[in-house]
Amino acid sequence: MTLPSGIPDAAEGQTFQEQRGSDQDGLVSVGDRHVRGGLRTLPQVADPARPAFSGRVRQGFGRGAASYEAQARLQQGVAWRLGRLCSDLPLTAGPYADLGAGSGLLSRALLAQRPSLAKPPLQLDLCPELLARNPLAGPTTAPWDLNRGLPPQLRDAGLLLSSFALQWLDDPMAQLAHWAGRLAPGGWLALAVPVAGSFDTWQAAARAASVPCTALPLPEADGLIEAAIRAGLEGPRAQRLRFSRAPRDGLATLRLLRSLGATASRQPPLDPGQLRRLLAHWPAAPLRWEVLVLVGRRTGGAPSLPAAPSPPYGPPC
């Protein structure tokens, strides 16, 4: 397999093939719109009312923390690309933060390509075990459940970054709008998120085996782009990328996700018989991801900030 085009040597070891390329600056058009290419220390937050699914997400990544970076090749490559897109943005005053920072892949990619930054962004993540392995962790690092919205320290932010985190939240589109609303005028939001169309081999296997698909439902790319526009981001630059990994059977796929900690599902687990049927029907086809990369800037005055969405606290459906 070859490296995804445009991802420099810092992502060496990448085993994913980018299937759909990009224009010269890595960004394309969406519809008829042109789309181009000192913080205070946070408290350590523990929310006793955390919804059940959010808790399972934390537990999964906690169990996989020790092996996460060894397996997160796609996440590393996408973080490098997103960091490159942010390397020359005209940043305004205001706090910077990496939302869902985990082990710090995105912030490290940004600092490597924008060494003029005096210090790393604020590191927020739901999983303390991943944060403990983040070499950029410091006094402004804190466990934080992004389902609760952003902490008050991030009002009028100059730059909010996020990679492979938004899809784990209860309402990705509402949270994206909330993030955009917390930017200062002229502030930037830059994110990467896997979207609907990923894991099609898993979905095909579940249909063929007549069992529920326990893959995480992913947001629609067009819906996220529209949410960003409605939230006041000017002409968001967006691109949908498709990556694939060499064909592997279902058991190897599920083991890969477990090694990443990406095991939480909104569906009940399959029973042993259902799992055997799923694996028996798993097609010999590449494992695919579709990833939306979006960079947008808030302009104009300071409209009213959207409230943090209220996540459902009942059992996941």
Strand content: 15-25%
Total helix count? 10
Structural class assignment: alpha/beta
Number of strands: 9
Report the C-alpha radius of gyration, rounded: 19 Å
Largest sheet report: 8 strands, mixed
- The residue ranges in which pLDDT falls below 50 over 5 or more consecutive positions are 1-16, 20-50, 301-317
Mean of residue pLDDT values: 81
**Series of H and E elements:** EHHHEHEHEEHEEHHEHHE
Topology:
Blueprint: E1 17-20, H1 52-64, H2 68-71, H3 73-85, E2 96-99, H4 105-113, E3 122-125, H5 128-131, E4 142-143, E5 157-163, H6 172-181, E6 183-194, E7 196-199, H7 200-209, H8 221-230, E8 233-245, H9 250-260, H10 272-280, E9 287-298
Parallel strand pairs: 2-3, 2-5, 3-4, 5-6
Antiparallel strand pairs: 1-8, 6-9, 8-9
Short description:
This protein has 317 residues and is of the alpha/beta class. It has helices at residues 52-64, 68-71, 73-85, 105-113, 128-131, 172-181, 200-209, 221-230, 250-260, 272-280, and strands at residues 17-20, 96-99, 122-125, 142-143, 157-163, 183-194, 196-199, 233-245, 287-298.
